Amino acid sequence: MPLETAGTFREWWLRMRAKLQRFMMGRYGVDQFSRFLNILVIVLLVVSLFVRNSLVYYVGVALLIYAYFRMFSRNHAKRYAENQRYLRLTAGFRGWYAKQKSYAQTRKTHHIYACPSCRQKIRIPKGKGRIAIRCPKCSTEFIKKS
Q1: Which of 28, 30, 38, 128 could form a disulfide with 79 if both were Cys (CB 3.0 to 4.6 A apart)?
Q2: What's residue 128's pLDDT?
Q3: How many helices (H) and strands (E) does the chain have?
Q4: What's the mean pLDDT in 109-128?
Q5: Residue 6 confidence class, pLDDT cut points 50, 70, 90
Q6: pLDDT over threshold 60, residue 58
């Protein structure tokens, strides 16, 4: 059916969306590993614009094909296992990044001090002046500016 006789664009869009949803039924779809692959593909393709090495381009295209293969795959068990392996390998980095992000948000309203004896991190609200801080872990008391 031509676009002119299909009615409004919204109706056409809803029909196409329903067709895509029917096509994707039973397929694996997108997970964290697929998102990582897609970001890596974009980075490699951008780098290939500046580097005159065709290997970077071909690796990017191969990863793009693999990412689409994973999304359209019907083998859920294998794709799930791949995603779990990726999550296990990147757990340390993702935890470190989440902690740094949390610290960055916390630093707007709090100071984070380390206890001089046991190195326990202690969060103190800003704007309270010089205060005595007691470590909850070892009960050492020290004075810091908040």
Answers
A1: 28
A2: 87
A3: 4, 4
A4: 89
A5: low
A6: yes
At position 56, the amino acid (one-letter code) is V
Determine the average pLDDT of the residues in 75-103: 95
- Say if residues 3 and 12 touch (Cβ distance below 8 Å): yes
pLDDT digits (tens, 9 = 90+) for 90-106: 999 999 999 999 888 88
Global pTM reads 0.66
- Alpha-carbon distance values, 14 to 7, 9, 72, 98 (Å): 11, 9, 21, 37
Percentages helix, strand, coil for the chain (3-state, rounded to 5) are 60, 15, 25
* Look-up of token digits 């500046």: 50
How far is it, in rounded angstroms, from Cα 28 to Cα 80?
A: 8
- DSSP state at residue 127: S
Nearest to 133 by CA among 107, 118, 109, 114: 114
Locate 39 and state its tokens.
Answer: 């970001």
Cα–Cα dist 89/91, whole Å? 6
> Do the beta carbons of residue 69 and residue 21 sit within 8 Å?
no
Residue found by looking up tokens 């949803």 in the block = 21
